[in-house]
Amino acid sequence: MNTTKSHDLFRYLAPIYDTVARIASFGRYDSMRRSLVAQAGIMSGDRVLDLATGTGYLSEILDGCEIVGADISLHMVNQARKKTDASFVLSDAHALPFASNSFDAAVCSFALHEISDPKVAISEMFRVVKPGGTVAVMDVVLQSTPIKKVLLFAYHLFIEMLTANYMHPDDLADSFKHAKGVTSNAKMAGLVAQVSGVKK
């Protein structure tokens, strides 16, 4: 079975993850996570899946929603519980323990690269979202120009310790090919992609 590749690392990263994320995003941590939530079209009262919730950095800004955070790392979930009253489930992203069509929206931020098969994880997000609901993801993506390849390598080495498996932008877009109203935005000079789509 596919598994998340390096979740044991989060045993040590969990207490400092938010600080590291703010440094790695060059001060755009808050604006990018709010941009993803806005792109998902989430409204008060929605039931939302926060996949690979981490420290709950998306869940904590989803005011008025019923949030379910799913993550494979108990250490990250324990950090999230300190910040939000969302419900949490320990789960592998490749096989979510939720019924089909049970969420109004699903979001995932900076976590796909830690999943062995991110396309399967995105497919699972679409499965559990109701028709007309939105799936929105944000992650660092592979680069094609020499300068950006160097920037990605530096980020990869410093932040992920060579454990990450970033997607090519075309592969990420292909994961949304069965959705409608697909929107894609580039962040951090194109190093980060935000993609959302509505389940048909």
Structure description:
- The protein is α/β, with parallel strands linked by helices and about 200 residues long.
- The chain has helices spanning about 10-15, 15-25, 30-40, 75-80, 120-130, 145-160, 170-175, and strands at about 45-50, 65-70, 85-90, 105-110, 130-140, 180-185, 190-200.
- The protein has a single domain (about 5-200), classed as Rossmann fold.
- The chain is about 30% helix and about 25% strand.
- The chain has a seven-stranded mixed β-sheet.
- α5 (about 120-130) links the parallel β4 (about 105-110) and β5.
- The longest helix is centred in the last third of the chain and has 15 residues, at about 145-160.
- It is globular and about 45 Å long.
What's a quick, concise take on this entry?
This protein has a single domain, classed as Vaccinia Virus protein VP39 (Rossmann fold).
CATH class: Alpha Beta
Helix amount:
25-40%
Can you tell me the overall shape? globular
CATH architecture: 3-Layer(aba) Sandwich
Low-confidence stretches: 1-6
* Biggest sheet: strand arrangement: 3-2-1-4-5-7-6
Largest sheet data: 7 strands, mixed
**Count of spatially separate domains:** 1
Task: Give the oligomeric state.
Answer: single chain
Q: Helix segment count?
A: 7
Mean pLDDT, as a whole number? Answer: 84
Strand content: 15-25%
The radius of gyration is 15 Å
> What is the H level of CATH, i.e. the homologous superfamily?
Vaccinia Virus protein VP39
Q: Span from first to last CA?
A: 28 Å
Q: Total strand count, please?
A: 7
Examine the coordinates and then state which fold CATH places here, giving the name of the CATH topology: Rossmann fold
Listing every helix as H and every strand as E from the N terminus to the C terminus, the arrangement reads HHHEEHEEHEHHEE
